[in-house]
From TrEMBL:
Pfam families (UniProt xref): MarR
Domain HTH marR-type as annotated: residue spans: 30-169
The organism's taxonomic lineage, starting at the top: Bacteria, Bacillati, Actinomycetota, Actinomycetes, Micrococcales
SMART domains per UniProt: HTH_MARR
Highest taxon above the source species: Bacteria
Coiled-coil features, chain-numbered ranges: none
UniProt-recorded name of the protein: MarR family transcriptional regulator
Gene3D superfamilies, per database record: Winged helix-like DNA-binding domain superfamily/Winged helix DNA-binding domain
Species per Swiss-Prot/TrEMBL record: Citricoccus muralis
Length: 180
């Protein structure tokens, strides 16, 4: 995995800022929540690192991770098409975000928008052949250069997924009806 400039520039720090923040929490008398604060802050920081590194891997494809996610979602759908509203729900992002992402993908010839005759307000996103090829190539690059070596063993990644899934369920992110 290649380091992104924003994530590698802090290697000169002689301390962990989040560990220091945890120590400050303890000194303020908030020891009972210091570990939770450090965990939440760490997840937010790791999210920044992971997105930056994914975007770096996708740069040769002129994609961001958000654009890749929409392409991948369409490529995995039964007919490589999906209502824009359904894509928004599946990606768990605001419809405006999907609209903006679809604008860029459409401009690049990777998706097409089609009206839905039964509902004039609905819009169908359709993956083009070029979009399908790019989604496949980008997924292969992510698998090879990023997902396969992001710093955790397969067992650690599975454990982390289960922990984060538990947090997501607790937050009401989705209904827990099926095993992970």
């Amino acid at each position: 995995m290649t380091a992104h400039p924003e994530t590698s520039r802090n290697r000169d720090l002689a301390f962990d800022p989040i560990h220091e923040a945890r120590s400050n929490w303890v000194r303020q008398g908030w020891e009972d929540v210091a570990d939770s604060m450090a965990a939440v802050t760490s997840v937010v920081r790791v999210q920044q690192i992971l997105i930056n590194q994914a975007n770096e891997t996708l740069k040769p494809f002129a994609l961001t991770f958000a654009r890749f996610e929409l392409l991948a979602l369409l490529s995995f759908s039964h007919e490589q098409r999906m209502l824009m509203s359904k894509a928004s729900a599946r990606l768990q992002v605001h419809p405006t975000s999907v609209t903006h992402t679809a604008d860029r993908l459409e401009k690049d010839g990777l998706v097409e928008r089609r009206p839905v005759e039964a509902d004039r307000r609905a819009v169908l996103l359709v993956l083009t052949d070029q979009g399908h090829r790019l989604a496949r190539e980008a997924a292969e690059a992510l698998n090879r250069d990023y997902f396969s070596g992001f710093g955790l063993s397969a067992e650690e990644a599975r454990e982390l997924f289960q922990i984060l899934r538990k947090l997501r369920i607790g937050a009401g992110d989705f209904a827990d009806t099926a095993p992970a």
